[in-house]
Amino acid sequence: MRRPDALTAGLAAATVLVAIVDTKMAISAGRQPAEFYILEISAALVWAGVGTLAVLIRPDRPGVGRLMQLLGLVLMLDAPAGFELTTSDRWVAVDLVLAHAAQPFQIALFAHILLAYPAGTLRHPPERRLIGTTYGWSAVVGVVGVIDTVAVVTAPGWVGARPPGAITGGRPSSVLMNSVWLVLTAVFLVLLVDKIRRATRRERRVLAYPFGSGLLILLLFLIVLVFTAASANIPIPLAYLAVLVGPGAFLAGLVRERLSYGSLAELVRTIERAPVGQLQEALRRALRDPGLQVGFARANGYVGEGGDVLTLPTGNGRAVLPIGGRPPIAVVLHDASLTSEPTLLNAASAAARLALDNARLHALVQEQLADVRASRRRIIEAGADQRRRLERDLHDGAQQRMLAVGIALQLLQRQLGDEAAAAELLTEARTELDAALAELRELARGIHPAVLTEQGLSAAVRTLARRVPIPVTVEDSLSTRPAPAVESAVYFIVSEALNNVVKHARATSARITLCRNENRLHVEVVDDGVGGADAGLGSGLRGMADRAAAFDGTVSVTAVRPSGTRVAVELPCD
Amino acid sequence: MRLVLVDDVWLAREGLARLLTAHGHTVVGLAGHPDEVPELVRRTAPDLAILDIRMPPTFTDEGLRLAGALREQHADLPLLVLSQYVEPAYVQTVLELTGSRRCGYLLKDHLLDAAQLDAALDRLVAGELVVDPAVVEVLLEDNQDPLAVLTPRERDVLALMAEGLTDRGIAERLFVSLNTVGTHVQRVLRKLDIPSGATDNRRVLAVLTYLDRTTPRPNP
Predict the structure, then answer these.
(1) Counting CB atoms within 10 angstroms of each CB, which of A172, A422, A540, B16 has the fewest?
(2) Chain A residues lying within 8 Å of B82, measured CB to CB
(3) Contact check, Cβ <8 Å, A462/B215
(4) Is the ipTM of this complex over 0.95?
(5) Residue B64, in any domain of the structure
(6) A476: which strand partners?
(7) Which residues in chain B are contacts of A494 at CB distance < 8 A?
(8) Domain span at residue B125?
(9) Distance from CA of B177 to the nearest CA of A (A)
(10) Do A463 and B87 touch (CB under 8 A)?
């Protein structure tokens, strides 16, 4: 709600002012029971009040509220025309003239409200023509009423009796007048039915409030009339109910239709945060349009959230809102009535665009991330594969050839027998060859230990542990071998960790743990050294983390109390 | 003696065959694939079979498994497994698969040492175990702390026990009397708390197991 503007406040104040005048008149000169006046005045007050409320609640669409305010004021002005007063006060006479001038306009206003509801404007030329004519006719009737009333109140001996009435008449001219009213009413009903028929789903839900409650009231009146045999007065409680329910229903409809501009930011947030699969639902809720559909641009048209192909409607109460650029990345098929709320549609469209962009970027990043992960893994696997192949090549090639040389040397040695000088050279050659074979063996083992390929991670880690100059215990509960690539990765991580222990930790002992928990492989290397390792420092630790990450695993380096370092590796394996 | 030689690499196979022939042995059968071997052994009934570890089809530990298969069919056939790896885990496997009987694990390049080759073959045929000294050296290095209780002489005796030598073999290698060796052996076993009842082959296994205890086998 907002602070009322001058027009709204002025109309409300005028109505209250007139209500005070009416009340004073009723108290001083009324012949009817008090309930009669209270009902008359409160009916006008309710219309004015509800109208004011409607303007305040829907500052975006003040039309209907303003009309209701006016209706309230007119009802208040013309109320004295039916007051049955006993007075000869000249001011009352003036007031009565005014009342009869205003009286016909209540019909025009009511028709106007019904046809303009809920947008507040008359959208179709026939409606505009009818309402224009009705106002014009009301003016004519008003003038006649003024003339008649002036004649009555200026007649000698007037004591407040009602004028012979242009409306209730008895004169020939009143037949003509009633005929015009009838024609206007008929046209009005036709247009009203047409309006309901043309209304979109969303609009009908709003129209249902006043029309539904109107029908209900009518039904109640009929029942009461049947039971009280027509002659009796309408029971007071029912009358009050009717007075309240009528304008109340209009207001309820307007509130229901209200798309919360106050919480536009909230709306944008909701839509913006909606996952792509729920964007349609978020928009439906935000725009109060249960038939709304979202279509995503594809090469050959638009598809809905469920993958169904959407045909873009033309007319039929549906409208298309393109989202994002040209061509649009998506379209929203919404109720045509929403086009009268451009601010809201723009906001929703912007929010939807954000949501779609977010989703698209998210998907893009995910896709790229998956690519990078896969390629990193391929690189690591290819590296391990190459190491294996290189080791095999050394084993089957260079090592065998050197062995063959050794054999040849030995055979030569046997043949040469006792030739001392030659034998000495041969021995020298043999010594060199032995050293070369030993070095080659070490080289091959460093590239990719055969025991890892052939006997698996457990055996290879035990071999690693054995080669460390400090005592290393191995706790191993692996019963099956992980995939070769995983074995390779873990082996080189453990190798690097032990390398760090020996080089930097000044440890006196270390422990390696290998175990599997469900589908996770856990490996720990714990030493009792000086600690100080940091995963962010050193290419060795970085390399360990990279190897683990290539298999979606992690490496954590933590300090152990009282002293030492724990390198914990965890990676998935099946 | 009559030998069967199994190695998938032609160069090594032919070279070793020539070497063995030069050492006065008869190579009665050559094979390049483990599948050919059982039939070959059955047909030629050799005194000893020499097997490479890494062979087709998977190039991992076919030689080890072949040793196990041959042991099942020929309880007394001496088997020498050749390897390029100084790897105690392989030694353990060989001993397990052959029931710790008449088997050996030797680095290929140690065949180039004529004396070592002859000694290994003779000891295998005589029913002893043969473990490559390089592997034993790795195990000893790995156990420096617990072995600190031994004198250098006792350490030498332990190494030779681990290599599979009998008391007599140790005596010959160290140029000492059989009695002296016996005393050393008993002292080593007592100091290391190794059951002394075991003799010869089972003693080798006990010593190897002792030396390998820092690296327990996988839990079942």
Answers:
(1) A172
(2) none
(3) yes
(4) no
(5) yes
(6) A514
(7) none
(8) 2-130
(9) 31
(10) yes
Q: Are residues B162 and B109 in the same domain?
A: no
Total number of domains constituting chain B: 2
Q: Is the pLDDT score of B217 beyond 50?
A: no
Q: What is the pLDDT of residue A265?
A: 67
> Which residues from A are below 8 Å from B214, CB to CB?
465-466, 471-474
Q: Domain check: are A458 and A342 in the same one?
A: no
Q: Which two tokens stand for residue A506?
A: 């000044």
Q: Which residues does chain B have within 8 Å of residue A458's beta carbon, measured at their own beta carbons?
A: 218
For the record, the structure tokens of B121 come out as 């073959």
**Interface list for B 160-189 with A (CB within 8 A):** none
* Digit-coded pLDDT (tens) for B150-164: 899 999 999 999 999
Q: What is the pLDDT of residues A268-327, one digit of tens each?
A: 777 777 776 788 888 887 777 888 888 888 777 788 877 777 777 766 678 888 887 778
Which pLDDT score, from 0 to 100, does residue A569 have?
93
Closest Cα of chain A to B51: distance in Å?
A: 15
B147 and B88, same structural domain? Answer: no
Give the start-end residues of each E strand in chain B. Answer: 2-6, 26-31, 48-52, 79-83, 103-107, 130-131
The CATH number linked to B157 is: 1.10.10.10
Give the per-residue pLDDT at B218. 39
| A417 in any annotated domain | no
Which residues in chain B are contacts of A476 at CB distance < 8 A?
Answer: 216, 218-219
Q: Do B11 and A404 touch (CB under 8 A)?
A: yes
Distance from CA of A451 to the nearest CA of B (A): 8
- Asked if A169 and A277 sit in the same domain, the reply is no
Instruction: Mark whether B48 and B17 lie in a shared domain.
Output: yes
Q: Does B12 touch chain A (CB under 8 A)?
A: yes
pLDDT, one tens digit per residue, over A95-148 is: 888 888 888 888 888 889 888 887 788 888 999 999 999 999 999 988 888 888
Q: Which of A334, A363, A392 is the last residue of a domain?
A: A363
Are both B40 and B73 inside the same structural domain? yes
Q: Which of A85, A87, A80, A130 minimizes the C-alpha distance to A103?
A: A80
Parent domain of A324 = 264-363
Report the alpha-carbon distance of residue A242 to residue A213 in Å, rounded. Answer: 9
- Is the per-residue pLDDT at A217 higher than 80? no
What is the domain-level CATH number for residue B13? 3.40.50.2300
Chain B residues near residue A396 by CB distance under 8 angstroms: 9
Q: Give B76→chain A minimum CA distance, Å.
A: 27
User: Count of domains in chain A?
Assistant: 3
**How much is the mean pLDDT over chain B?**
87
User: Where do we find the tokens 């709204």?
Assistant: A8
Radius of gyration of chain B (CA): 17
Asked if residue B179 and residue B124 are part of one domain, the reply reads: no
3-state secondary structure A32-66: CCHHHHHHHHHHHHHHHHHHHHHHHHCCCCCHHHH
- Is A400 in CB contact (< 8 Å) with chain B? yes
The side-by-side arrangement of strands in the sheet containing A330-335 is A309-310, A301-303, A293-298, A330-335, A318-323
State whether residue A404 sits within 8 Å of chain B by CB. Answer: yes
Q: What is the pLDDT of residue B123?
A: 92
- The pLDDT score that the predictor gives to residue A165 is 45
Of B12, B93, B138, the CB nearest to A403: B12
**Is A392 an interface residue toward B (CB < 8 Å)?**
yes
Across the range A510-532, mean pLDDT stands at 89
C-alpha A547/C-alpha A536 separation (Å) is 15
Q: Are residues A156 and A287 in the same domain?
A: no
* Chain A CB within 8 Å of residue B56 CB: no
